[in-house]
Amino acid sequence: MSQIKTVIWPKVILFGDSITELSFQPNGWGANIAHKLARKCDVLNRGLSGYNSKWGKILLPRLFSSTNPEENNIAAVTVFFGSNDCALQDKKPQQHVPLQEYSENLKEITRLLASVGVSADRVIFITPPPINESAWEKECIVKGCTLNRHNSVAGQYAQACVQAASQCGADVLDLWTLMQKDGQDYTPFLSDGLHLSQEGNQFVSQHLWELLESRVAHLPIILPYWGDVDTKSPESSLLCDQ
């Protein structure tokens, strides 16, 4: 009997902080992307609550095979850091990353991804979204601290993310700008002033898909449609190479 060949799904990796970790909640942006890519890709959540770009850069090599990059079989990677990096240094020093270092970390993440076979054209940076300071301040007070993030500072990190993406040849989803476009009220996109609401998740899913779709459109549906399975000899349909 010939050896059965393992079916290997391509992967889309979602790499970032809590906004990525929470993206697989019901109606989350990651869950929506995974739904769109069913039977085409495994969408893997590598979101880590509280992490910043410095920690992400350090741990990234643990997430990918460097000995045989082809085994990674990665169609795209989203890199979504900045909301913790932009925490004010005097208020949240554990998470704060200086602006220039943040930019360099993003570039290094791109270089590390390239070393495991993920070229820059398969990388999508996502900027931090805007911050609703009044809502987030209430959350901070509940936790016994003062306001530790400012929207204007988040904007500086978003701009640095856009510039880093341009310099690396990666794509970018500039949430900070898009959510405030033409002076629109961005507060409904946020659940607590920092993290995404259901409306915010829908916004990210919609705009991310516009960037992601071209990177996965060529991928075939994996395994035959049920109506195409040979019922008299299902093995001939289910065990053949596609």
From TrEMBL:
Pfam families (alphabetical): Lipase_GDSL_2
InterPro entries cross-referenced by the UniProt entry: Iah1-like, SGNH_hydro, SGNH_hydro_sf
Keywords, sorted A to Z: Hydrolase
GO molecular function (one): 1-alkyl-2-acetylglycerophosphocholine esterase activity
Signal peptide (residue range): none
SGNH hydrolase-type esterase domain mapped to chain residues: 14-202
Enzyme Commission (EC) number: 3.1.1.47
Catalytic activity: 1-O-hexadecyl-2-acetyl-sn-glycero-3-phosphate + H2O = 1-O-hexadecyl-sn-glycero-3-phosphate + acetate + H(+); 1-O-hexadecyl-2-acetyl-sn-glycero-3-phosphocholine + H2O = 1-O-hexadecyl-sn-glycero-3-phosphocholine + acetate + H(+); a 1-O-alkyl-2-acetyl-sn-glycero-3-phosphocholine + H2O = a 1-O-alkyl-sn-glycero-3-phosphocholine + acetate + H(+)
Top-rank lineage group of the source organism: Eukaryota
Function field: Probable lipase.
Family label: Belongs to the 'GDSL' lipolytic enzyme family. IAH1 subfamily.
Record-linked PANTHER family: ISOAMYL ACETATE-HYDROLYZING ESTERASE 1, ISOAMYL ACETATE-HYDROLYZING ESTERASE 1 HOMOLOG
The protein, known as: Isoamyl acetate-hydrolyzing esterase 1 homolog
